[in-house]
Amino acid sequence: MANHKQNVYNEKDEQLAKYAKALAHPARIAILRQLALMDTCCFGDINCELPLSQSTVSQHLLELKNAGIIQGCLEPPKVKYCINKENWEDLKIIMKEFFNTEINKK
Amino acid sequence: MANHKQNVYNEKDEQLAKYAKALAHPARIAILRQLALMDTCCFGDINCELPLSQSTVSQHLLELKNAGIIQGCLEPPKVKYCINKENWEDLKIIMKEFFNTEINKK
DNA sequence: ATTGTAATTCGCAAAATTACGAATAATATT
DNA sequence: AATATTATTCGTAATTTTGCGAATTACAAT
Predict the structure, then answer these.
(1) Deepest of A51, A75, B24, B94, by most Cβ within 10 A of its Cβ?
(2) Residue A4 maps to a domain
């Protein structure tokens, strides 16, 4: 029982959880790996690599975009996707910090 | 259009996504931070820190347990929770590897 | 045996996620 | 203007997640 903290979560936890959520699907991980490796990558290239329909791939890309991890530049007639480097660094740092917290002895 | 890879995702992507999913809620992040910091931590201690009901906290703990990130030892009348160090290391390594992939130039 | 404390499980509801096909938009090319 | 290519959006369905209160389990102490 006892008194629950009535307020919300701390902001860092919220941000980390939000990033983690964006990574919480194998298709999205695969997309990020592909973007990290390839010089240039349009929707079609990504779509080809995934066992999903166009529309579903588009949704996964949108989620990554909403989380700030990727961005899409229009390059008619294609859309060129790439990692948002600034936020990728942010994510990297937040993760690193989280996993570097010392775990108590025993 | 184009040939989709008909098979499933690669195993590493699946595992990383699974771990990320476990981290994809601020309450679960908060739980992990608390466990990392405190020497000893029973259900009640965790429950007190979160703005959630007992049953919901129990569910979040179960998810972390199912992902292998934490474990609970019975210590009547309490249940002592702690991080599963072996799997924590595994998670850490998988994350590190993922975030260390070099991003293509420009 | 009864009572109290600690935590989990059950049953349920609301919301979010995942996925698809069809329709649409946006732009290049003919 | 008509057609083809590329990607997004819409509508919908199935599943999963999140959350709660009530009931239950498990064990200690009285």
Answers:
(1) B24
(2) no
Residue A61 maps to a domain: yes
Domain-located, residue B33: yes
| Cβ of A25 less than 7 A from strand C | yes
| φ, ψ for residue B2, nearest 5 deg | 50, 165
Here the tokens at position B45 are: 């201690």
B105 part of a folded domain: no
Q: What nucleotide is nearest B58 when CA is compared to C1'? A: C8
CA distances from B12 to A22, B8, B9, B63, B74 (A): 16, 12, 8, 20, 32
- Cβ–Cβ below 8 Å for B36 and A10: no
pLDDT in tens, chain B (106 residues): 344 554 589 999 999 999 999 999 999 999 999 999 987 799 999 999 999 999 999 999 999 999 999 999 888 788 999 999 999 999 999 999 999 877 765 5
User: CATH number for the domain including A82?
Assistant: 1.10.10.10
Give the total number of structural domains in chain B. 1
Helix, coil or strand: residue A27: helix
- For residue A24, what are its two tokens? 């919480």
